[in-house]
Amino acid sequence: MTTPALEVRNLSVAFHGATGLEPVVDGISFELFAGEIVGLVGESGCGKSVTARALMGLLPAHIAETNTASLQLAGTEISSLNNRGWQQLRGKEIAMVFQEPSTALDSVFTIGYQISCVLRRLQKISRAGARRGALSALEQGGFTNAHQVYGAYPHQLSGGMRQLAMIALAMATRPRVLIADEPTTALDVTTQSLVLERLKLLRDKYATAVLLVTHDLGVVAQCCSRVMVMYCGRLVEQSEYSDLFNHAKHPYSQGLLASVPRIASGRTGYAQAIPGRVPAPSEYPTGCHFADRCFKADDLCRRSYPATQWLGNSRVACYHPLESG
Amino acid sequence: MKTTGTSMLLQVENLSKRFNLRQGLFAGDGPSLTAIDQVSFGIETSQIYGLVGESGSGKSTLGRAILQLIKADSGKVWFHGKNLCVANTRELNTIRKKLQVIFQDSSAALSPRRTILQSLLEPPEQFKMGGRTQRRQMCEQVLETVGLNDEVLGRLPHQLSSGQRQRIGIARAVLTEPDLIIADEAVSALDVSVQAQVLELIRKLQSERGIAFLFISHDLAVVSQVANVVGVMFQGQIVESAPVDSLFRQPSHPYTQELLAAIPNPDPTVLMSTVHIKAGLSREAQTRGCVFANRCASVMPQCHVQTPSVHSLETVEHHHVKCHLYSESVDNLSDRA
Hints:
By secondary structure, chain A is α/β, with parallel strands linked by helices.
């Protein structure tokens, strides 16, 4: 088997809270392979964005305690890197696209300047070379008017164009791994399809491994081969997306699928809500975190957390996985 | 989109609003943006009218112009037999009891320093409804309606989840027993699972209390979950309007078709079609012809010259399209068939 572009073993993040350490991400393991887009889904407050930041080494030690058994980038261990080591890596080998491009981009510099800055810092090239690099990154990013966008300030672009510029920036160094944290959540459906299309195109071109954090299973269906469902800091189900759609094994995955609004025709097919809400990290129950909202929960579920087991091609953490059909 | 004014709860006639893009002394000569352009539509009693369109299409401006939070340049808004555009402040204050609003961002809509009870008491106090104990009872009752527990009354907005906060926003709008609520992207900021709960609540308020809604959203799938009638807005104009089933069975305007095709379906076998949007730096104002002409896949020469008029589809009642493809010249229609 090929070496994964990113391999994560037992990643845990705990925040320093009022009552001591609060586990936000709790021992998750997964891998990303070159050229695949993997979806990370779950409701807000499940730890998706924290996972994304932890993978980028972006969580400051005085706020969060990050522990991992092993974090390998293309076979190289990076979990023990210091700040300087991360700086060599970030943006070059592993890059990130944030949800809000208007805050992620600096409003007082032009788009072109910001991309060439990144290129000059990471690649040690001349000013002119960086300019050429930035222009070609913008062209690859789907801009037909790259020169115009190069000289534009973020506020002169629409939300969708800003996000495309953000992706162009992240992909300018052709990283092995791209982490996209809700890249299309703030966008219209029409612009969203444009951004996702571009993401897929760049993935094909550079064989990037993409972790797509989203709460929209529709987006996952259109882009991702595999999906990881996260609930309260743990991965409850990992599988091929088509398997999840046709036969979700964890009750939470099924609940998420049922809550996606689809075009309701003839007053049927209303979205079904999952009862209850995501608890705060300090309120996580001792057993399965989903037990209080689950229709299959029993005493066993409330007593201890289920271990992750293989069911067919899926990894599921549930005592009572749903039967097919 | 002509309708008879009598049976309508809200009737909007040729409403327009232009914003000057340049400010200051000489702003009058500067470039301007037409946010809403001769919009006419109506909402019947206890009907949910879904208004969709992308950001910048003027949906929110239309909502605010109806509420008189911004003054329209021209046109009329008829509500309970009064033209709100010419109503004075005192008249508006009485009318607002029956015309309420829910905003997208519930944390910005609630004062962070007031408890939920204090915020909820405001509308009944404003409209002098009942005595002190009665008002408190009303608050407790309305919480039950929106599915919340009494214990939230003493809390501050930040102590609630976003779904709970949005329910408070809805509770506050429902308190005055309105006939029409304008919900501006009321569920857009919520998780899908919570979104489904709030949509259910809106359907319940409609069926149990007979409240009509103007439900503004950029998400056609969400709109299809609640609306009876849908209007599709593009650059300040309603380009298509139809009963919800008809719109999704027979989307007729090229823009509606584009919007529908762009919705990501959770079924991996249904692939989203790629949309071809010309990536431009600015929204250039379309002065002549159809507003959608520059992006339209089925554009014809006349679209750049002549503004299309509103056509009714023959097969379905109340299905109106503002597009040259549906004009009387039959050769265009046969092209598409």
